[in-house]
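Researcher: Re-running this chain for the archive, since the previous output was lost when a drive failed. Same request as before.
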Amino acid sequence: MKIDNVLVICPTSLKYQWEREIEKFTGRTVHVVEGALDKRVQQYKNSSFFNIVSYGVGLNDVEYLNEKEFDLVILDEAQRIKNWKTKTARGLKQLKSPDAIVLTGTPLENRIEELHSIVEFIDPYKLGALFRFLDKHQIKDETEKLIGYNNLNDISKILKENLVRRTKKEILSQLPERIDKYYFVEMTDKQMDIHEDYKQIVNRLVNKWRRYGFLSEKDRQRLLLSLSTMRMVSDSTYIIDQEEKHYDNKIDELMIILREIFESGNDKVVIFSQWERMTRLVGRELRKMRVGYEYLHGGVPSSKRKGLIDSFHDDPAKKVFLSTDAGGVGLNLQVANVVINIDLPWNPAILEQRVGRVHRLGQQKPVRVINLISKGTIEHRILGLISFKKSVFEGVLDGGEDRVIMDGSKFSKLMKTVEQLDEDEIPPFDDKNEDSTSAVSGKGSTKETARSQKPETTGAAGIKRSTNEKTTSGKPDTTPDIQPEFAELLTTGAQFFNKLGQTFGKIQSGEIKVADLIEKDPATGQTSLKIPVRDEEAVNNIVNSVAGFFQAFLKK
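Model: Regenerated C-alpha cells:
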C-alpha cells in the first residue's frame, strides 16, 4: 500500500526527538503540531509527510485527525493506552487509518489485560473479547481472587505474525560492552536516624498486618509515606527538609566519581534521580565544579527540551545530562557513555529504561552504569527483590513460563516485600551467570559486574519529619484507631460470613445439598449445622474475638 502521510503520536517530551530522528534518517518533510485548537486545525492542512502530536493533542483532536485521513498511525510509548478503561485509551482507539504501528518497550507491566488493550489498537479482534481472553488466561481461587496466569505461550503464538520483538540478546552483537558497578555508600548518622525512625513505623504497621490481616486506609497511606521517606532520606535529608542543613554522602561520592571520569577522558555522563530535589543538589555541585550540564525535569516545557538535547549532543562543554525520570523514556543520548543512577526505582523496568537511553543501537563506546546504593537501607534491599512481572512478560512474549502463580493481591505482595525489612540479613541481589569482583573506590565499596557478550517520577513533595504522626494532607489526624479486639472481630467475622455466603451459594446452585450440612450426634440425637471453615484456628479466632469483645463491652 502506498503511504503518503503519517501521524506520529508520542509523549510531549519526545516530539522534537522524533523530528530530529526523522530529519536525520529520511528526506521526508516533518511538522510538529502544537498550539491552541484553532492553530492546530490550520496546521493539519499542511502537506508534510510526517505530522507529530502529543498524546494530549491526539486525544483532543481525534475528529480533526480522522478528517486528515492518515495512511499510517504510529503510536510511540504505547503503554500509555495499556489501561483500556482510561479516557486516553478509549479516545485514541477511535482513530481511523488503514495501517498502524505501536512501539513500546513494556507491552505489559502488571496485568495481561494491558497487552490486550495495546493489541486492540492494531486489531480489535486479534485477541478476541476481553472477558474471554481473561477467562482463558487468568487463574483464580475459590473467592475469585486472581492468583496467576496460564496458557501464556498461546498468546505468543497468536501475536507471532503481528509482533516484531527485538531483545537485548538478539542485538547483543551490535551493542557495545556494558559494565555495571554498584557503589555501597555509608549514610550519615542523621540520615540513619531518620531512616530508622520511619522503619519503626513500617515495622509496627507490618506487625499490625500480620496480626489482623488488613490495614486501614489511613495505615496504608502512612505505610507508603514512610517507605517513600526512607527512600528519600537514603539520598539526602534535603529531600524531606529544605530548611535545615542537609546531610548526605552520595553527593560527595558522586563528585569523586565525576572528577575521576573527567580527568581520564572526554566522556559524557547521564545522571538520573527519581527525586527532583536531589537533582537540584547535584546541579549546585556541578556549578561549583564549573562543569557544563543540561537539566531535564518535569517542569521543563516541551518546546525547550529539543534545545537541551541538541546542546548536550553538540556542545563539548556540556559534560553532564542531569535528569529526573522525565528523561528516562524515549530519549536518545548515545553521545554519552556513562550512566549514573543516584537511586534505584522500585520497578526494575524503569532502571533499564534509564540505561537504555545510552546503551542502545548507535552507541559506539563501552557503556558504564554506576548505581549508588545507601548501605544497609531500604535501597539496599531493593537489589534482592524478585519480580513477578518479569515472569509474566517472558511467558507471553518470549516463550518462557506458560503458567505463573501470584501470591495474593497487589497490596499483599507489597506487604510481603515490606516484611523483609524486619529481617536482620539483607537479601543478595541476583547476579547469577555474571562474573563479579569486589573493589573499593571513594567512600563506598563497589560490586562490579561485567556484562560483555551476555544478555541482559519526578520527586514527591517534601515531607517534614515530626514527632507527631500526621496524615498526608499535613493536618492532624483525628481519626481514632480501631481497637484491637474490635479489629480482630471484624477480620475473623468477615472471614466467617464470607465462607458462610459461599456455602449457601453452593446450596442455591445445587453443588451441595442441605442434607450434607446436617449432622446428628449418635449419642444424644441432637441435630447440628456443619459450616465448612478454613481451619480450626479460624474457629478459635472467631470464638475468642467474640468473647473478648463482649467481655470488654460488659466492663464499660
